[in-house]
């Protein structure tokens, strides 16, 4: 590996590709696979995200990738979209120091996410604004149930921040699935919403309604690829859709720090998924063991550089507005 | 640490407590906290479980703990209850070797979970039996929505295996929350169920309906404690309930191999939760960094030994049948 | 897995063996292999130890295993034997709390090893006593160089604490190799020793002298087995001896939390060592991913229980006093 | 974080610095600290390296950093310098695939280091060439003992490959300490060397001789900083030198995947070192949790870009040839 300066991110990645092994080699392979997915006109790109990516600073990047259509389907935790909405309604996450005293923070109504801080007030504002949106959405649907994808689409429609992931997905007609939507402030806000005295219609999200939606996307697409940041429910949901639709993934990149030996899904090997038919035996796949906040920006910058500014992915919409 | 033989599990734990540091000291503290939770008549014990605990062999242990009322509320992934149901309808998970070729397994319709194997046929049987149950449940409820807790209760009512976790919970009136219920074979079975031509009523699980149910349990209980095996959505759901009910946990034990530095929830420190008010600043808490399949049986055996066979936890039921 | 109480450690291990997978299964296998090594009259058992096992409380256990001849050769870091000597000359390691302020500790001359504390005074006492021993040893050897094994033997001869690992090894004629002996307080003490004005003979430890000694032990033994706690130089030294002596290990148990993906030796798989001939392709081997302070006492208690108090390993001495 | 393309490595690092948290924020801080160390004319930069960095492709980078005087002192494992010497005498490490069968590799005399392969023949050639060098060195020194630093210097003098780390260090008069020199092929070669029948002088490396050498460097330098890649003996040796010389480190960057909870040195926190006085309470320090093969090239490229091609560190030599 020969390092000179200045070096662009992709030039460094080429060094990793030529002479780097262990993690460096795997990271270079991950970039190759992401590039290949994007150049493959038949491939639908699923991005499965867990972890506090918005507080950590990846919000604009994810929104940009959606706007460039470098992502076709987003599957994520409720918390990520809560964090996105917090910023969309005008609050911020702050970089903190590592030496905060959590009891002091508690007294001052400041919440800590590792080295990021967010005020309780930001949550109060979110509760207020979103419970109002819930009411509107419920009134429009009058008892009709929504899938988590439709719920995300309705939120994106109402959030007016260009850097918002939900907004970008709404504008680009990119489906956003939130399989554990209840497990986040969205759940608490629903409790507030449904407890209001003067409520006419209660918003109902049908837990199972999204299943045929996501499976249908896999089914209709000639090829499917996934990029997993973290693991958990988002990874499992994409893999299950590939299985249920009997398609199997053609491309798979997993970036995680979890380890396989505990038998948990998040750290499980891609080799193992082959036995299930979730990932094809002949798929291009790789696991990168590293921090997603470092690894994913590297991948994005490298692949953008390779594809150039003129590159266009001409994909038709997978879903028609809120309808799958 | 003085090791002689034979030594009971709790005698070993006393050695860890007296002279062991690092992981041994933390494990001994975890046993002390679990014992304290069980002896504290005011405390409701939440067990939050992720990871493939049933394939790994902890099914009977969890069911036994429920029957002994060493657990008051179970919060888990859909996959765990799918694995439980697979065994309840007569299939098995098998110990495999580490050197399986996943492409070969795929050909023979055998699925691998790390070093455990399960046949595709087991899933087919499950699909068949459970889609029948879904139909019954839907017919009984005629359009009324269920929470994941009510759904779990309805399944437990219909599974006749004494060693089943769902059955034990049903019989003991222990609520089981499955916040990401759709992210598992339960979701695929729902798709089968709702696609049936002659279907009269479709089962509807309302994603948000369980939120006030779990928060209400925290709220009504003078004290709350949690034991987390793994992390993910189950851990987050319990912590969020403690926050939303403005109670804060009085006891917390987390057993995980995930690490804090990535900022993800599963590996996040209990210290951090204090800033949110999820865990109280003065709570008894500890994180044990280890494999749950080793650590939790040790904890259970040690605490059972301390409490003795005459120990009874006289707790009234938290929920009335399927009603919260 | 069926857990009742009271359960002996080995009864629990049998449960792990029958129905436990993932970490539980591997731990049960580790016990089986250690038992097999001890019952195999042809096998020499190498224990390779890194990490702060003495501060963590395993000192008496290791000394007891040496006295029971459950270990034939010890390979360890300098720091472990420094910690052993600190206790042998009358100082102690104390369990601390997790919330110490390291700047405060520094002011009060207290050193921290994770959650264990030791005073600077303990080191000063050690420096004083051991530099006196260095002088005696050098005077006896008058310019003749020692291997780290001979150095350890000379220390063990002079330490009069029954619970000392070095003392137990000396009394039992168990060779102790310290391949990185200089990387510890032993190195600093040597500096003090060699700087003394009135010094007649300076102690010389020949870095390479131990290589034929440890290789010779492998060579002469019909079979060789290793138990690795941690990794690092001790693991590498045993594996290298097995390679250099062209024997290959017949048994191998590695207990570690390090991971393979970084390419480092400590987390590297036993599979990989097969390509080198360090471990035989047909060896009994297993890696246990866990905290050695929990895992090793479990293994020791389980195997002692299996073998019973009458079990005797009649091994002749591998070395004659300080001579290899 | 706003990612556009093309982006230089340092431009990306500025994004990490401004808006990235968790791992991204720590990596940006690591670059800031390394830059600060290099701009600080009073600071001596120790690079402590463990892990298979040469097989992984970092050999040229390390040699280049030495030639640019971005490193003042190298402390490393024996294995790293063995790998360096293997390439210096004309052999190569090859990138392999992940699916090698180790028993097959063994048959074909090919050794595996994770995903890198090297032939047994490369080792045989090394043994032959280096045992000849050992003889020359021993003949020149005639019974006089060497420190590992002097041994490394003598090897560097005899290796004629410009890309060799040992050669670059020799030419630049950069001391290389190998505290566990015996724990590597260097140890086996010594055995070959000392077993030769016609040998006149045997090479003797005094395990302790380097201690005052490395402590003296710390002592004389107004400030000291360390960059640790991995951990193990190299990290401990630098920290111990800072302690023994009563200086304490002013700067510290640790890149590792090891974790603190086991109590081992490699994963231990820098906070803990403050209690010992190894790192100063007011030092600039950070731990980056990641793969060194990815993280260190990023740091090097970013810092080189910041300093520009005209930057010169005018440091006088720390050692005079082989003399400390």
Describe this structure in words.
The structure is a homotetramer of 324-residue chains. Chain A has 324 residues and is of the alpha/beta class. In chain A, 48% of the residues lie in helices and 15% in strands. Chain A has 13 helices and 9 strands. In chain A, helix 11 links the parallel strand 7 and strand 8. Chains in contact: A-B, A-C, A-D, B-C, B-D, C-D. The interface between A and B is large, with 74 and 73 residues.
List the helices and strands and how they pair.
The structure is a homotetramer of 324-residue chains.
Chain A: H1 9-19, H2 22-39, E1 43-49, H3 59-67, E2 73-76, H4 78-88, E3 94-95, H5 102-107, E4 110-113, E5 116-119, H6 120-141, H7 148-158, H8 165-172, E6 176-177, H9 185-195, H10 210-220, E7 223-229, H11 232-244, E8 249-256, H12 270-276, E9 279-289, H13 292-307
Parallel strand pairs in A: 1-2, 1-7, 2-6, 7-8, 8-9
Antiparallel strand pairs in A: 3-5, 4-5
Helix pairs in contact in A: 1-2, 1-13, 2-13, 3-8, 6-9, 7-8, 10-11
Main attributes?
13 helices, six-stranded parallel sheet, homotetramer, about 15% strand, about 325 residues
| N-end to C-end Cα span of chain A | 48 Å
Shape of chain A: globular
Instruction: Quickly count the helices of chain A.
Output: 13
Low-confidence regions of chain A:
none
Q: Summed up, what is this model?
A:
Chain A has helices at residues 9-19, 22-39, 59-67, 78-88, 102-107, 120-141, 148-158, 165-172, 185-195, 210-220, 232-244, 270-276, 292-307, and strands at 43-49, 73-76, 94-95, 110-113, 116-119, 176-177, 223-229, 249-256, 279-289. In chain A, helix 6 (120-141) packs across helix 9 (185-195), helix 7 crosses helix 8 and helix 10 crosses helix 11. With 324 residues, chain A is α/β, with parallel strands linked by helices.
């Amino acid at each position: 590996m020969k390092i000179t300066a200045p070096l662009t991110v992709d030039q460094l990645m080429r060094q990793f590709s030529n002479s780097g092994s262990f993690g460096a080699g795997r990271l270079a392979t991950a970039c190759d696979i992401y590039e290949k997915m994007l150049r493959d006109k038949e491939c639908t790109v699923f991005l499965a995200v867990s972890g506090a990516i918005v507080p950590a600073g990846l919000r604009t990047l994810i929104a940009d990738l959606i706007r460039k259509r470098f992502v076709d389907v987003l599957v994520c935790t409720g918390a990520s979209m809560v964090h996105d909405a917090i910023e969309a309604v005008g609050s911020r996450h702050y970089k903190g120091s590592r030496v905060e005293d959590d009891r002091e923070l508690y007294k001052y109504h400041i919440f800590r996410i590792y080295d990021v801080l967010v005020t309780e007030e930001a949550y109060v504002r979110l509760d207020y604004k979103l419970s109002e949106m819930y009411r509107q959405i419920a009134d429009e649907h009058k008892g009709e149930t929504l899938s988590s994808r439709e719920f995300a689409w309705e939120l994106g429609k109402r959030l007016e921040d260009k850097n918002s992931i939900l907004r970008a997905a709404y504008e680009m007609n990119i489906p956003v699935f939130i399989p554990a939507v209840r497990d986040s402030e969205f759940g608490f806000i629903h409790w507030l919403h449904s407890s209001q005295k003067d409520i006419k219609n209660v918003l109902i999200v049908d837990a199972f309604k999204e299943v045929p939606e996501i499976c249908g996307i896999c089914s209709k697409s000639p090829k499917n690829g996934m990029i997993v940041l973290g693991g958990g429910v988002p990874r499992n949901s994409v893999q299950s859709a590939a299985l249920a639709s009997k398609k199997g993934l053609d491309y798979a990149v997993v970036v995680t720090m979890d380890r396989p030996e505990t038998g948990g899904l998040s750290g499980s090997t891609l080799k193992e998924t082959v036995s299930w038919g979730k990932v094809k035996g002949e798929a291009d796949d790789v696991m990168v063991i590293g921090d997603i906040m470092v690894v994913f920006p590297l991948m994005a910058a490298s692949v953008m550089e390779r594809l150039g500014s003129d590159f266009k992915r001409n994909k038709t919409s997978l879903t028609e507005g809120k309808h799958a």
